[in-house]
Amino acid sequence: MFSNLKNRISFLYYTQVKKMTPNEYSIMRMRKSGISIGESCRIYSFLGSNEPSLIQIGNHVTISSGVAFVTHDNSILKVLDPMTDVVGKITVGDYCFLGQNSILMLGVTLGER
């Protein structure tokens, strides 16, 4: 979970001193990276991405463990042009639930509820 000592100390500071839950700490870190996350969300997967600004999560969303957000792809067009990279936004509406090991691909929009 922690790549180095600095991350571990940061986690301990926020969870022990600031009294954050591990979920609140993870959401704070993801928001700092550029992911738009609404209020009252429960996220049990780390949503790392090379393009975090392309991920938008609504209010009251639950994301189970092992969920992946894929915001870019160049596997299909690589044959035609090696410099091609396809990028797209992922939007999750309010009151959604994403089950364990779900994969959301670029361009996907999940509507409310």
Largest sheet: 4 strands, parallel
Give the SSE order as H and E letters: HHEEEEEEEEEEE
> How confident is the prediction overall: mean pLDDT?
86
List the strand order in the largest sheet: 1-3-8-11
Helix count? 2
Overall 3D shape: globular
User: Which ranges are low-confidence, i.e. pLDDT below 50, for 5 or more consecutive residues?
Assistant: none
Radius of gyration based on Cα positions: 16 Å
User: How far apart lie the N and C ends?
Assistant: 31 Å
Helix/strand structural class = alpha/beta
Helix content: 10-25%
Please characterize this protein's 3D structure.
The protein is built from 2 helices and 11 strands. It is α/β, with parallel strands linked by helices and 113 residues long. A 4-stranded parallel β-sheet has the order 1-3-8-11, covered by helices on one side. A 3-stranded parallel β-sheet has the order 2-4-9. A two-stranded parallel ribbon has the order 5-10. 17% of the residues are buried.
